[in-house]
Design a protein that fits this description.
Elements (H helix, E strand, L loop, with lengths): L9 E4 L5 E4 L7 E4 L2 H22 L23
Antiparallel strand pairs: 1-2, 2-3
Length: 80
């Protein structure tokens, strides 16, 4: 039986074009697509491969099924 699992993704536009895709709840799950459509397709493939790896190790599969949201915080320049 297949189940529905939700994952938040961050689509980051790249200066040379295309999008890098990050999956925050799956550390190290990163991929790239030349446009939004391909980036979303590649994110699904990367998530599937990551989940298969987790299942082989017998670990629990994390997800973003609980209500969460992503926000941003603007910072003024900080002198270090």
């Amino acid at each position: 039986m297949k189940s529905l699992i939700r994952f938040n993704v961050i689509l980051k536009p790249e200066p040379e074009g295309g999008f890098t895709v990050l999956v925050p709840s799956l550390p190290g799950c990163i991929t790239y697509g030349k446009d939004l459509e391909e980036a979303k397709k590649m994110s699904k493939e990367a998530i599937l491969a990551y989940i298969q790896s987790i299942k082989k190790r017998g670990d629990n599969i994390p997800s973003d099924d609980s209500e969460s949201f992503i926000s941003s915080v603007e910072m003024t320049e900080i002198n270090v």
